[in-house]
Structure prediction request, 395 residues.
Amino acid sequence: MSDKQVLLIVGGGIAAYKALELTRLFRKAGVGVRPILTRAGAEFVTPLSLAALCEDRVYTDLFSLTDEAEMGHIELSRSADLIVVAPATADLMAKAAHGLADDLASTTLLATDTPVLMAPAMNVRMWGHAATRRNLATLKGDGIAFVGPGEGAMACGEFGEGRLAEPEQIFEAAMAMLGAGGPLAGKRAVVTAGPTAEPIDPVRVLTNLSSGKQGYAIAEALAALGAEVTLVSGPTALSTPLGVRRVQVRTAVEMLAACEAALPADIAVCVAAVADWRPDTVGEGKLKKKPGGPPTIALVENPDILATLSRGARRPRLVVGFAAETGDLIKYAEGKLKTKGCDWIVANDVAAGKVIGGDDNTVALVSAGGVEQWAKASKAEVARRLAARIAEELA
Ligand code: CTP
Prediction:
């Protein structure tokens, strides 16, 4: 993303301070940020703090000779791959919906054909007002994308919808939009994630501790590079990454069916911790305690989703599996490469440190070409590296 540029319009509102955190997230991901601060926005954040985080100057005034000499408003609007308006006030939305152009922010919005993402923030009554609803519908009809607002307590003491989306949410939405022209544009990917839950009876399941974090991060990273991603997920507590289609499943059998329904695909990444076995029979009613002692639950083997996709007639061009091991990592990973018939295995040692449910991962990429050991990184970073490698492979 290091060649990408965002034009960030910061409107006036108590939530404007969140634009600083948003800027930090963009810069960390290597995305350039050029800020426009409206007059009202400058009442809430200082141009200096914004400029320091952006490592660029802040544009504020349509009629400033220095601003216009350095970069005119027309050029400004064309210099970015994406325009993000955060916070998008009721006033900014109204101006954009009606094509008004009386300051630098509104003029830039009118003079551009660059994709625009708005993150509205305003009082709950302003958000619910018929005029704002009309403007929202108009802007959506004009092709402007929206993220949020969320619901919660407001600075004005009221409660309801109108809170600016969290910086991470705005960042994710923006990255998904930036990826639309990315190296994986036009490619389809299937990602499995999370555990599966195999019913024993109507109230009990056989499952495992997978959080789904690594799989969700991979789905998000592939989408950020432009892929059309179907995330087939077992039960998790995670929200769907932006720009990703999620198919919710419970069992391994359902997961396989959902993966096959998502074919054809160019890429399959199987991250799910699929239960190897399921109870042979599922009790129709709740199993009751009996004097003879606990029941014996007979198990049958579940389908291997990775192996089935790898060997199927509609095999995706690149099939990637994961191997979570507690010892002999590379030996087992190389074995799985053969038994499963996939192209790469991302192997991680789950014995060392807290990997399951944690935020970091140390992995090795094992393929027919050899073993690549990657340094310890966050699951999000591992996902971005893997997505970049996939893009390279399919280029
Ligand atoms: N996998 C799968 N379907 C299964 C079992 C595993 O798709 N029924 C996939 C996982 O998503 C992962 C890879 O296979 O990408 C390896 O999973 P792992 O649990 O490490 O291997 P197992 O096949 O279960 O082998 P073992 O239990 O012997 O380690």
Observations:
- Residues 278 and 299 are 5 Å apart (CA to CA).
